[in-house]
Amino acid sequence: MVETRWIIAQDVEQQKVKELSKAIGVDDKLATLLVQRGITTYNEAKDFFRPSLNQLHDPFLMKDMDKAVDRLVKAMKDGEKILIYGDYDVDGTTAVALIYTYLKNLINKKKIEFYIPDRYEEGYGISYKGIDYAADNGFGLVIVLDCGIKAVEKINYANERGVDFIICDHHRPGDEIPQAVAVLDSKRNDCGYPYKELSGCGVGFKLITGLSMRLGRPIEEVYELLDYVAVSIAADIVPITGENRILAFFGLKLLNKKPRPGIEAVLGHANIHRKEEYSSSEMEKQNVLERELTISDLVFLIGPRINAAGRLEKASDSVRLLIATNQNHAEKLAASINDLNVKRREFDNAITEEALSMIDADEKMRNAKSTVIFNENWHKGVIGIVASRLTDSYYRPTIVLTRSGNLITGSARSIKNFDIYDAIDNCSDLLEHFGGHKYAAGLSLKPENLEKFSERFEQYVSEHLDEDELIPELNVDIKMDFSNITPKFVRILKQFAPFGPGNLSPVFLTENVIDSGYSRAVGNKKHLKLTVTQRDNTENVFAGIAFQKGDLFERIHSKEPFSMCYYIEENFWQGKTTLQLNVKDIKFKNN
Predict the structure, then answer these.
(1) DSSP reduced 3-state for 95
(2) Considering only CA atoms, which of 191, 292, 155 is closest in space to residue 577?
(3) pLDDT of amino acid 284
(4) Residue 233: its pLDDT value, please?
(5) How far apart are CA 210 and CA 170, in angstroms?
(6) Which position among 208, 211, 238, 554 has the lowest Cβ density within 10 Å, counted as fewest Cβ atoms?
(7) What is the pLDDT of residues 341-398, one digit of tens each?
(8) Is 524 helix (H, G, I), strand (E, B) or coil?
(9) What SS3 state is found at 295?
(10) What CA–CA distance (Å, rounded) separates 512 from 589?
(11) Strand 576-588 relative to strand 562-573: parallel, antiparallel, unpaired?
C-alpha cells in the first residue's frame, strides 16, 4: 500500500482571518476555514451560512431556454403527447421523476409518459428504439434528461420521423450541437449561463422553473421538488458549490421534513425510520426521521438502491418508486429494488476481487500508470462501481470493460487533477462512442481496437502524469489541538454543510496524539475504535473510528505518540448521537 501524502493547505492572509473572525463572531480556526473557501466578508458569510432560493439564477440566462419553454407551452396548449426520456442512472431517473411529477398536475396524465432506455438492449443515451417508440405512439415532443448532448445523428433521425426533442444535459458537448428544438446545457461554448456544474436533474429543474415563470404559477410548486434535485446532486458527485449548494441545502430540508413515499421506503431498507416526537413548543406528536439525513446518506444509502434497478433490470422501476404516492405501493417497489441492490453488491464484490487478482498476476498491468482491464463475462451494470474500487486500490486512471453485443463497453474513473475525458478523447478515433466528465466517463469500441486503445491510453496517461501524482494525497485544511473542539466550534462547523466536492468536510490535523487507554481493534481486527487525547493536554478525550487501520493497534495501544488527520462528525448508534472523529490517516514519528 502506497503511503498517503499529507498536503497542508497554504496559509491564508491573517488580516482577512482576523477581520472575518471579528465581523461574524467566530474563532480564528473557523474564520480560516471560511477564508480558504473564498469567504472573506460578512455578506459572503451570510450567503454561505444562510442560503436563499432568491440567489438562484434566472433560468432564461441559459441558451435555448426560451425556445424550450415556448415549445413545451405549445405542446401543453395543443394537447400533444409528451414523452419524458431519461438516462438509467440516479441523475436521469430523478430528473424524469421531477419533470413527470410537475407536469402531471398541469396536463392530462394520459398525455404524458416516461421512457428509460434499457442499459443492455439500447445502451446509453437517446436510442433509435426510443425515437421509434415516440413516433409510433404519437408523441409530438420528447424531453430528454441527463443525456443527448452528443446525439447528433439520432436527433436528425428524430427530425425525419417528425418528433421534436428538448435536450436537458450537463455533459460536455462534442464539436457539433444536435439540431433539436432546444438544447439546454450550460457547458455549451455559446451558453452564458453563470453556473456550469448543474446535475442533469438540475437542468430539468431549470426547465420547469422557466415554465412556471412563463405560466405565472406559484414558484413553490417547483421548490417542492427540490428533494429530487438533492438526490441527483449527491449521487452524480457534482460540485456542491454555487447553485448546487443552494439546491442541495433546500432539497435536504425537504427530505428531512417529509420524504416522499418512495424515498421513505428506501430509507426503511437502509434502517432509517421515523419515530414519534413531541414539539417542544406545542407538545404535539409528530413523526420525524431518527436522525438528520446528509449528502453522504444520499450517496451511500439512497443512490445505490435507486441505481440498482437500472444496473440489473429496468430503471423504469426506479422512476415508479420515485413518483409513487401510495406508501404500500412504494414499499413493494422498494423491497424489490433493495433485493436487486443486494445482488448488485454480490456482483461488484466478486468482479472487483477477480479484477484485482488479474492485475496482481500481470507484471505489465501492475507497473502501468493506468488500468485498462477487460473481461467479456463481467456484468455491465456494475463495471462503473468496479472501476471506482480499482481506482481506490491502485490510485491511477482506470477503465473497466466488458462485452455488450458486438461491442466492448466500459466505464472510466480518474484520480485527482487528471482529466480522463480528455485522455479518452485523445483515443476517439478508436471508439464508437464516448462521453462524460473530467473524473468519470463511459465508452464503447470494437473488439479489434481494444489493444490499440489500451496502448494509446497508457501512453497518454504516462505523458500527462508525473510519478508523484500517482501517490494518493490527503488535503489537510488546518492544524489544531483537541482543545479547539468546543461545542460552539462543532455547532458552527455543522453549518458548513452540505458537504461534497467543492465544499468538502474540513480535514483537521492533530499532533502528539496518544491512546487514552480504551482504544481497541474491531471488525475482525480490521478497524480501530479509538479513544484518544493529546500527550501535553490529557483533559480533552475524544472517540474516533479509523477504518482499515487495525494493523496499527499494538503501536497505538503502547501509547506511542502519533499524528492523525480526521473529520469531525456525528455518529448515530442505537438511538444516540455522539461526536466522533472519523480518522482518515495516521502517521507515527518513526514510520
Answers:
(1) helix
(2) 292
(3) 54
(4) 97
(5) 17
(6) 554
(7) 999 999 999 999 999 999 999 999 999 999 999 999 999 989 999 999 999 999 999 9
(8) coil
(9) helix
(10) 9
(11) antiparallel
H-helix or E-strand spanning residue 220: helix 220-223
Q: How far apart are CA 411 and CA 386, in angstroms?
A: 9
- Which of these, 545, 541, 537, 534, lies nearest to 571 by C-alpha position? 545
> E strand or H helix at 383, and its extent?
helix 383-394
pTM summary value: 0.90
Residue 14 has a CB neighbour count (10 Å cut-off) of 12
Phi (first) and psi of residue 288, to 5 degrees: -130, 160
Residue whose C-alpha cell is 462503473: 384
Classify 480 as helix, strand or coil: coil
Which residues fall within 8 angstroms of residue 191, CB to CB, at 6 or more apart?
62, 63, 185
134: cell is 415516440
pLDDT digits (tens, 9 = 90+) for 268-306: 999 888 765 555 555 455 566 778 899 999 999 999 999
Q: For position 133, what pLDDT does the model report?
A: 98
pLDDT at 437: 82
219 is written with which cell numbers?
A: 414558484
Instruction: Give the residue among 145, 142, 137, 88 at the shortest CA–CA distance from 117.
Output: 88
Beta bridge partners of 274: 289
What pairs with residue 412 in β-bridges? 399, 441
Check residue 525 and give its pLDDT.
93
pLDDT given at position 93: 97
Helix (H) or strand (E) holding 82: strand 81-86
241: number of Cβ within 10 Å: 16
Q: DSSP letters of 109-135?
A: GGGEEEE---TTTT-SSS-HHHHHHHH
> How confident is the model at residue 188, as a pLDDT?
97
Beta bridge partners of 399: 372, 412
Peptide bond into 498 cis (omega under 30): yes
Q: Are 321 and 334 in contact (CB under 8 A)?
A: yes
**Cα–Cα distance, 576 to 574 (Å, whole number):** 6
**Nearest C-alpha neighbor of 180 from the set 89, 336, 67, 41:** 67
The angle subtended at Cα 347 by Cα 342 and Cα 351, nearest 5°, is 150
Helices 242-257, 226-235: inter-axial angle, 10-degree rounding:
120
Q: What is the spatial distance between Cα 63 and Cα 279, in angstroms, rounded to a whole number?
A: 47
Give the pLDDT score at 342: 94
Three cell numbers at 236?
A: 452524480
Spans in the chain with pLDDT lower than 50 = 1, 283
Q: Where are the alpha helices (DSSP H) in 236-326?
A: 242-257, 261-269, 295-297, 303-312, 316-323
